[in-house]
Amino acid sequence: MARISIDLNSGTITKPQAVIGIDLGTTNSLIASINESDRLPYCITQDEASIVPSALYFDNQDIIVGHAAIAQMVNQPENTIYSVKRLMGKSYDDLQNLNHNLNYTIVDTEDQLVKVQIGGKQYSPIELSAHILRKLKTVAEDKLDNSVKKVVITVPAYFNDSQRQATRDAGKLAGMDVLRIINEPTAASLAYGIGLKGEEGKTVAVYDLGGGTFDISILYIQNGIFEVLATNGDTYLGGDDFDKAIMALWIEEHSLDNLSSSENQLLRLTAEEGKKHLSHHDNYTKTIALNGVEVNLSLNVEQLNDAIKPLIDKTIVSCKSAISDAEIEVNAIQEVILVGGSTRTSLVKNSVATYFSQAHINDELNPDEVVAMGAAIEADILAGNRKDMLLLDVTPLSLGIETLGGLMDVLIPRNNKIPTKLQKEYTTSVDGQVNLAVNVYQGEREMVADNRKLGEFVLSGIPAMPAGLPKVEMTFMLNADGILQVSAEEKRSGVKQEVQMKPQYGLSDMQIKQMLEASIVNAQEDMDRRGIAEATTEGEQLIYATHKFVKENEDLLNDENKLVINQLIEKIKDAISVKNKDSIVSTTEDLNSYSRQFAEKVMDKQISKALQGKKI
Ligand code: AMP
Fold first, then answer.
1. 58: part of which helix (H) or strand (E)?
2. More confident: 599 or 114
């Protein structure tokens, strides 16, 4: 049932905002939405095609996206930008090898991230992607006759945090509310209904062969949790290489040397047409004019298969590596999902089916559209339209930092709902401390050594102050994509440092379960160790403060006082060395009570000094 809301002021009926899923691809992008009547996903088409090329053409004032930009590729290569996805979240150094394969210029910038030079202006990949997304938004709004804001965008499973964040930022810049960034293989599984219900665990391989890239992802899906066990692939292998192999065949057969660039382009398009034709037929023939003569080009399935077999074999080698990285056997794969236009080629399908011989091959849906359709399903769930769907929005393990004594100090407890933001204040333990090391951990154990380290950074540049005076505010922000942003700010000076990490990355359900079990089994021992660590820290801090005090207030202490203090300090040290919590606590208390008298004397001294300075 569609929801309709009425604007009480104007009396007009407003449609609820549409939600969409976007497959933001390297070469092509797609948009999908959900049919209100049956809640099934469908791709939104523009001029009959569901694909919008992820290409941009920079006219003098305008930026043109999609098919119209592709049309300019041959004549205006320097003003036509493609493959922006390959630049997302990357630095100039990361892209040194790629630079030669692009016909536009990338530049190194101060903020470490790469930019694209077009005319006299520089654009970040985020801005360029935002232009593509804005175009997709417009296409969707035109078709749906409704405003579109809420969106789920897909990224490859191997994208790191900065690439995911860049994609999210591009969505925001395009004026959209990015509900979530999800993995492409996850979306493909959702499109086939895998992982939508609380079901038995399933091991799934998503084989994605597009125009220019190949990805294989091994997922373990249970109760709505999509866990990436392994990914592999080749960022420069796809259907375009099939086309090149066919071209090479024809060039040799017909001695087609010295083709002009437009003839080359024509031959490439003919090769692609032939390849597509052979996905459903046995033979292909076409006559085209090359080098001023008519050439009869022909291709049959056997020739095609011979030409592309080495390329397909490479993808199977990648599959083998992924299976081995996932630490499973190939026959553990229950479902294979085919994604990407090139999986329509018969030899690809057959080779995949042969390698994953035990699995069910899912190829009923349009392989170009499955990712966008899955993204639309996720968007529909997140928009709250599918109450029956499982949504796992809690952190499975606690997140915190290491504090003095190697203790785990939790900021976000396990089972906390995400997204979430929690803050806590800390201080320094040593006088004049200018750096504060922040070590971030995940887990339930009391000592960080037993937990999983996620990352570390140093908050540097804290102005030298006595211990305990700096106010360091630690903020943990865990977003819906599972990206943890940790920031530390010294409030008095404003010094700030921020890092991102991905707590669930590379962590399987099994490991989470083991970590939880270990915390229960070791609970008593852990509590004891925490008790000792806390008492030790307190004892050590008192020793440190006492040494300082003695040094600064020689005049208040006689030899006997100093002797007693030293003896009491030694007793604390002995207790710490044998790790006896009770005696650490009692010896610390002894030193505390003995030194209290001197502290009072100092107070008196300071008060009289303060009064001296005042003119009454
Ligand atoms: P994608 O990047 O997923 O859009 O995949 C595009 C690739 O799929 C291109 O290399 C196309 O030539 C290829 N492709 C599209 N349709 C077919 C088909 N019917 N048979 C074989 N390859 C196809």
1. strand 56-58
2. 114
